[in-house]
Amino acid sequence: MGRQPCCEKNGLRRGPWTLDEDHKLMTFILNNGIQCWRIVPKLAGLMRCGKSCRLRWINYLRPDLKRGAFTEAEEDMIIQLHARLGNRWSKIAAQFPGRTDNEIKNHWNTRIKKKMKFMGLDPRTHHPIGQHHNLDQTIKRNHNGESTSSHNMFSNQMIKEEKPENDQISSIEDIGLMMMSHNHQLESLNPSFELEFPQNWNDISGLQWDVFNDPGLGFH
DNA sequence: AAACGGATCAACCGCGTACTG
DNA sequence: CCAGTACGCGGTTGATCCGTT
């Protein structure tokens, strides 16, 4: 025979933890440490399964947890680690004392992915969105002698390729493409220009594509 | 003030691996 | 070595919050 079953599923509580449950689990672990999660709820007087207790401790109750928003430096590091490791959240979290894999995973899915799309980057590959087919076509079509830098050739061609039928901005990807084009145009006018991102989708949704192709307009 | 929709995040689910007898 | 289970991980869900209409 192998190990004993994890827990009796019948009669166990599920859903959000109460203050009382948190207190019981916290007190028990601080006094006894963690040997076996299966027996923790029994000894701590909790109607939860060991798995649930483990998750609650790791993600919420651990005293060494660092709470609060992620800093710019942390976000940059997450992006770099994700480029190397992929979705191995526990490996990534190991580089951030006080942060949990769940926290980093949530932050990635809700914020960083969007930020990368704003920057015109594919969050899965970390490469520019649509790079391959657009670059190939760009190189062919610019044999007519236009004097543009390679990244302007790239972004301007993307705008032509990706512009929607109704001219209306309708997705994060749309914004990413336009931001790239707009950024490159402003850079060419003013080398010290730094791209800023809009704070809110509502700041920009519903705008027309042509607004972003006017280099005289500052964005945000 | 109410309804709605999007964002956030805690918690659950299911699977692969490690472990035990 | 095998069967059966605990553990850990990544993906997903759903409750709640918050801003907008």
Automatic annotation (TrEMBL):
GO terms for biological process: regulation of primary metabolic process; response to other organism. It comes from the Eukaryota. Keywords: DNA-binding, Nucleus, Repeat, Transcription, Transcription regulation. It is found in: Nucleus. InterPro entries: Homeodomain-like_sf, Myb_dom, Myb_TF_plants, SANT/Myb. SMART domains: SANT. Residues 9-61, 62-112 form the Myb-like domain. CDD domains: SANT (cd00167). It holds the Pfam family Myb_DNA-binding. Residues 9-61, 62-116 form the HTH myb-type domain. GO terms for cellular component: nucleus. One of its GO terms (molecular function) is transcription cis-regulatory region binding. PROSITE patterns: HTH_MYB, MYB_LIKE. This is Uncharacterized protein. It comes from Tagetes erecta (African marigold). The lineage of its organism: Eukaryota, Viridiplantae, Streptophyta, Embryophyta, Tracheophyta.
